[in-house]
Write a structure and sequence with these properties.
Strand order of the largest sheet of chain A: 2-1-3-10-4-11
Helix content of chain A: 40-55%
Strand content of chain B: under 5%
Oligomer: heterodimer
Order of helices and strands of chain B: HHHHHHHHEEHHHHHHHHHHHHHH
Largest interface: A-B, 60 and 52 residues
Radius of gyration of chain A: 20 Å
CATH architecture of the largest domain in chain A: 3-Layer(aba) Sandwich
Distance between the termini of chain B: 78 Å
Strand order of the largest sheet of chain B: 1-2
Distance between the termini of chain A: 41 Å
Number of helices of chain B: 22
Number of helices of chain A: 12
Largest sheet of chain B: 2 strands, antiparallel
Number of strands of chain A: 11
CATH class of the largest domain in chain A: Alpha Beta
Structural class of chain B: mainly alpha
Number of domains of chain A: 2
Largest sheet of chain A: 6 strands, mixed
Strand content of chain A: 15-25%
Chain lengths: ~325, ~500
């Protein structure tokens, strides 16, 4: 609590606004803008938070969830950014909030949104078909250097394609990327042996893994995943080697799940929602959601979040620049 | 059979008053969201989803899936009565359903639609019961080239059957393709045709186009023709429902064919919308007497409805067995599964047979409940048509506008609806067909994605469309359908010429 108060002070100072005496409370229904279609990862993220807020009565006014997922989520961010100064609109997304304006000519800028909190971090795993010959990432890379291998993923110039580009750059592989509409489609294409690999999040391929239709080679994380439950026969998330030790020198690559307000809101508004999200992240329901979807617990807000956004944004922009995908 | 035993266990799990009540609640709510254009099944199910978090998974899935059935039925109702499809997949029902209602046969059209829809759904569930393991693996054979071939087949089965000039069909279809490409392109990740207008980045929803083209366009025509529905004097008789039920067996061939198309499109998974269009196209092509199609042919109602529902039901199989949602609604339900702590995928059948077979059993019961509920309300719906146009007309406009707003909570969509209404009016006046435009809007971007993914996979070679028996068969069938009218025309012309030439020759001989 003390920490968040000090963050509030820093932020108030940074914005040059004295915190008003009365703390902010929403006085009408709050709209949760999901920047993805119904049923997707971001949708479940927002709706789980909605359910937890309702259960513990963390807000006095009701929450309305709307899906605005067109154009890779840009629809929802443009919509939210359009309500400048409105304290009753929250956008839910991933790092697409600040990556979209860099890679496509979308009608909003990252500065048009105020970061509130990051609540989870979704991991990336290199998956191949269950019947594939290679048993380690090094085998896969050796094959990939000969060319002709295909990685399928969700969307174009988004997290999956950026990671593919990073793999090519780090190992000298020549992997082609095929964009699909969602990670789910990429999962099925891999199970049907139409593509050679995908870099799906753990929850997107879990079902196929359990049926031995796909198998994980490595996780793009500096340490192994912490869950030691055996989810697929003898194997569990904790048994997947890190990509660095398995032969792909990429240290850490993950996707934060983020919450945003429109630009131009008062610091106490940001503080209020950051507190609500922190309380959400401390509930057992949230822990269960993270475990069910195999995501890592992370809670960031205030300046920590801002610098994390900057670091991630800069790292990814570098890849975008190398590939010539910058929009401006 | 092992599956039958499991199914009986499933019935054991769901047969309780509590569950039956949930089914009725789900179906009723579903009919409501289906009737309101723009709300639709995916939105309705997502609205209901938070309520299910505290339920046990079996009750939750019963509620959600029954809402889905209800929405599918409700969507057909407005298509037939007001020419406004409540669901994308019931657009094809408007082509003949609305003319039937206008001609005073609203009850007949509604009963036909509901019963054939129920039959289609039941066929889908039977298929799931008997073939679950085999079919699930078949769906894995589908990749981008196969998808493109299926969409190509849908276009081909449609393009040549139009009553209007093929060039008008082509113009309409191309406009649809252009509209479908507005927004973000999946393959390149860039925005197209948005002209820096923020409202356009989400693309033009096909529902908006349909509400304008059909709903508003039709209202404008009706107003011009004298402010009344022609079906206004039709009396609603309960006997008509009974008579229509007796009539159903006559359409067995249409129903059988549409069921197969529906199941095929549901499991592949091209979805119910493509299925209903394709089934309508095929029914029209194979009919001996095509003259009544588009003017109120009962087969034009039976075919899309059967296919729509068998596809909607079959679409749940890939979701359960593979974790691939076959429709937008299935995608929402899959999200629900994960929240309830279940992992959709191949292991669900072995890990939670009580859940899977409970759901399948609830599909049988839920659809029967749905058919009874909707048929019981036919007289109620049909009597709406007897309300004077001066009252019902403005109500329809209000419903369309609120529906248009609900699609994406966007005010600009209301103006788009008006724009599409004008286009619809002009198209009708100039005798341009609307259906190809709608079809192209629905499947256009999917077909484009599939084609470009295939090109990325093959490195730019078209051979990929003939690379295995499945895709080659689909493509060849599509090409044959596309070229058959040309072939018929050629044969017809040749025969005519010979016919012309023959008497001529005789004349010469006589002289």
């Amino acid at each position: 609590m003390k920490k968040s108060v000090s963050i509030a002070c820093i932020m108030a100072a940074a914005f040059g606004v004295a915190a008003p005496a009365a703390a902010f409370e929403p006085n009408r229904p709050v709209e949760f803008v999901v920047t993805a279609g119904p049923g997707g990862g971001t949708d479940i993220f927002a709706r789980t938070i909605q359910a937890i807020i309702a259960k513990y009565e963390l807000m006095k006014t009701p929450v309305v969830v709307t899906n605005k997922g067109s154009a890779g989520g840009a629809e929802g961010f443009v919509y939210t950014a359009g309500y400048k100064g409105d304290a009753h609109k929250l956008a839910f997304g991933t790092n697409n909030a600040y990556l979209l304006p860099v890679r496509a000519k979308v009608p909003y800028k990252a500065e048009d949104l105020t970061p509130v909190a990051a609540l989870a971090s979704d991991e990336f795993v290199l998956w191949v078909n269950g019947k594939a010959d290679y048993s380690t990432a090094a085998d896969f890379v050796a094959k990939a250097k000969e060319g002709g291998l295909k990685i399928g993923g969700s969307q174009s110039k988004d997290v999956d394609q950026i990671l593919t580009s990073m793999i090519n750059d780090a190992t000298g592989a020549k992997i082609n990327y095929i964009p699909f509409k969602s990670g789910g489609e990429a999962a099925v294409q891999l199970a049907g042996e139409h593509i050679d690999a995908n870099v799906n999040n753990p929850s997107e391929n879990l079902g196929q893994w359990q049926a031995a239709m796909v198998k994980p080679l490595c996780v793009f994380k500096s340490v192994k995943l912490s869950s030691d439950a055996k989810v697929a026969g003898e194997k569990g998330w904790g048994d997947i080697p890190t990509c660095k030790e398995a032969g792909i020198p990429i240290d850490n690559y993950s996707m934060p799940r983020t919450v945003w307000l429109p630009g131009g809101v008062e610091p106490d508004v940001v503080q209020f929602y950051a507190d609500v999200m922190r309380k959400v992240s401390e509930t057992p329901e949230w822990a269960k959601y993270l475990a069910d979807t195999s995501q890592s617990p992370v809670y960031l807000s205030g300046n920590e979040l801002k610098s994390a956004v900057e670091v991630d944004g800069a790292a990814v922009s570098e890849v975008l620049k190398r590939e010539g995908w910058l929009a401006n | 059979m092992e599956n039958i035993g499991l199914l009986i266990d499933g019935f054991g799990h769901i047969l309780s008053w509590n569950h039956i009540l949930l089914m009725m609640v789900g179906v009723t709510l579903g009919i409501l969201v289906g009737v309101l254009p723009g709300l639709g099944a995916p939105n309705g199910v997502s609205l209901l989803l938070p309520l299910t978090f505290s339920m046990d998974p079996i009750s939750a899935i019963i509620l959600l899936s029954c809402m889905y059935w209800g929405a599918l039925f409700g969507g057909s109702t407005t298509s037939i009565l007001f020419n406004i499809p409540g669901e994308p997949s019931s657009v094809a029902t408007t082509f003949d359903g609305y003319p039937m209602a206008k001609a005073g046969q609203a009850s007949r059209a509604l009963t036909l639609a509901f019963v054939s829809a129920g039959l289609g759904a039941l066929a889908g569930v039977v298929m799931i019961t008997l073939l679950s393991g085999w079919v699930a693996n078949f769906a894995l054979k589908f990749s981008s080239p196969e998808y493109f071939a299926v969409y190509f087949l849908a276009f081909a089965s449609f393009i040549s059957m139009g009553a209007q000039s093929p060039f008008k069909t082509l113009v309409s279809m191309m406009l649809g393709f252009a509209l479908a490409s507005i927004g973000m392109d999946t393959i390149s990740g860039n925005l197209r045709l948005t002209f820096d207008i923020p409202e356009l980045i989400k693309g033009v929803s096909f529902l908006i186009a349909v509400m304008g083209l059909f709903g508003i366009g039709e209202l404008l025509l009706t107003t011009e023709e004298g402010l009344r529905f022609e079906g206004i004097k039709a009396r609603v008789k309960l006997a008509e429902i009974g008579r229509t039920l007796v009539e159903i067996p006559r359409y067995w061939l249409t129903i059988a064919r549409s069921t197969i198309i529906g199941i095929w499109m549901g499991i592949t998974p091209a979805g119910p919308t493509a299925a209903s269009f394709m089934s309508y196209g095929v029914a029209r092509r194979s009919a001996r007497d095509k003259s009544m199609f588009g003017k109120g042919d009962p087969r034009g109602v039976v075919a899309p409805e059967t296919a729509d529902h068998s596809a909607g039901t079959s679409a749940l199989l890939p979701m359960l067995a593979l974790g691939v949602p076959g429709s937008a609604t299935a995608a929402v339900m899959m999200g629900g599964l994960m929240i309830w702590g279940l992992t959709p995928g191949p292991m669900l059948f072995t890990d939670r047979p009580d859940f899977v077979w409970g759901l399948i059993a609830s599909m049988y019961l839920g659809n029967v409940v749905a058919v009874f509920l909707v048929i019981a309300t036919v007289p109620l719906y049909a009597s709406i048509l007897r309300v004077p146009f001066s009252i019902i007309g403005p109500i329809i406009v209000a419903v369309i506008f609120s529906g248009a707003y609900q699609v994406a909570n966007s005010v600009s969509d209301i103006f788009l609806v008006i724009g599409f209404g004008l286009i619809g009016y002009v198209f009708k006046k100039l005798d341009y067909p609307l259906a190809p435009l709608v079809l192209a809007m629905v499947l256009g971007d999917k077909a484009e994605d599939a084609f470009r993914q295939s090109m990325l996979m093959s490195g730019g070679s078209l051979d990929i469309f003939w690379s295995n028996a499945l895709v080659a068969g689909l493509m060849t069938l599509g090409l044959a359908l596309l070229l058959s009218p040309l072939a018929f025309w050629l044969i017809g012309t040749l025969r005519k010429r010979r016919h012309d030439a023959a008497p001529h020759g005789d004349g010469n001989a006589a002289a």
